[in-house]
Amino acid sequence: MEPSNDVALDIIITNVVAVFRTRCHLNLRTIALEGVNVIYKPEYGKVLMKLRKPRITASIWSSGKIICTGATSEEEAKQGARRLARTLQKLGFKVRFADFKVVNVLAVCSMPFAIRLIDFTKKNRPIASYEPELHPAATYRIKTLKATIQIFSTGSLTVTGPNVQTVATAVEHIYPLLFECQKPLRK
């Protein structure tokens, strides 16, 4: 059987991590006392702030570096980061939204078939590794794309990469390799 080119795979983005800078010093105590939906973590030197729409959690450091997690698209991550900067401006800081960058995207995808992980790993060494005693998934790293794929025997994939386009390219890259190692259907 040949892998068909018209297979539609649903890639569901579960988390987008983005960073940006405020270009000013932030007083974490002031944010903790005057901000809403805030958790102050002095032992880590940061404040966690949650937004409801878009649903993101931000780690805020006094240096002005902010990491936003929990968005489900790059646009949502940027919108949430801008809302966060606006919230800090309203608390009295001279925030300038700068150096926004999406640094990591986590997605899940399901193949329409189950996979023989041992065969897949043997055919794709040294790029693929499988340690069933340590983790139930095989790991496949694509260095050129900076993407990592966790492959489960059920056909489920967990893909991490630097942006949404890379994640989609990684799934397109691995589909024919997985198609060769699919488990035969039971009759």
UniProtKB/TrEMBL annotation:
Keywords: Cytoplasm, DNA-binding, Nucleus, Transcription, Transcription regulation. It comes from Esox lucius. Signal peptide: none annotated. Gene3D superfamilies: TATA-Binding Protein (3.30.310.10). One of its GO terms (molecular function) is DNA binding. It is found in: Cytoplasm; Nucleus. This is TATA box-binding protein-like 1. Belongs to the TBP family. One of its GO terms (biological process) is DNA-templated transcription initiation.
